[in-house]
Amino acid sequence: MEAVLKVKDLRVSYPYGLGKEKVALDGLSLTVGKGEVFGLLGPNGAGKTTLIKSILGFVGVKSGSIELLGHATLSLAAKSRLGYMPEIANYYWFMTPGEILDLFGALAGMKRAELKNKIPAALELVGLSGQKNELVRTFSKGMQVRLNIAQAILHDPEFLILDEPFSGLDPLGRIDIRNILKKKKDEGKTIFLSSHELSEAELICDSMCIMKQGKVLKEGPIKKALDERGEHSLENYFVKIITE
Ligand SMILES: Nc1ncnc2c1ncn2[C@@H]1O[C@H](COP(=O)(O)OP(=O)(O)O)[C@@H](O)[C@H]1O
Ligand SMILES: [Mg+2]
Question: Does ligand 1 have an atom closer than 6 angstroms to the CB of 195?
Fold first, then answer.
């Protein structure tokens, strides 16, 4: 399988206090294949968001390498092939979803005529067509996540990076998000998501990486990993790996 993301021996630390450093990624390596749904799994504080921010160039990397879509450094051209859903998106509450997507589409370099078609299509896909002209201020958590996903997929990127797409959703919301992601996978997109919702990850992900304290404990296809240990659920497997 063609690799679209290759992370090698990545080290990232955050400064804190006087001359001290908090190590967030401690020699982390992983590979994501084209067309895969890859789940970055780990407890809170494992370094999932830090890895995502490193891939996007939002945090400085101390050492190691990241190769994404064939590029060793993230050029503007490569960035336009990515979609990113942040863990926390504070959209302007006085705007409507239509206006927000218009703004983000323009920032992504999309043309007016293109936006005219793509905005209704994205809102339709995430089930927000009926709320197109409502203020984001009135949105529930589930509606905010849908808008966050619409923003990430608007320009039809081939590589989607989603930070905790299932967090805070009710069961119906999760099913909807799962179906949206399945649709994107069927279109051949690669999806890289972080989650601590293991039952969701098991349903949607092909491969996974279990992280703890900035290190990879296990990486590979989920089914293969469970079979190797005779486990029937990712949750049981995860608990064993994390506590070993
Ligand atoms: N801006 C920051 N400054 C200092 N420490 C940070 C910062 N962001 C994250 N950390 C620390 O780095 C570690 C990894 O955090 P994070 O990547 O957010 O983990 P996760 O997304 O898996 O919950 C944690 O110990 C966290 O406290
Ligand atoms: Mg996080």
Answer: no
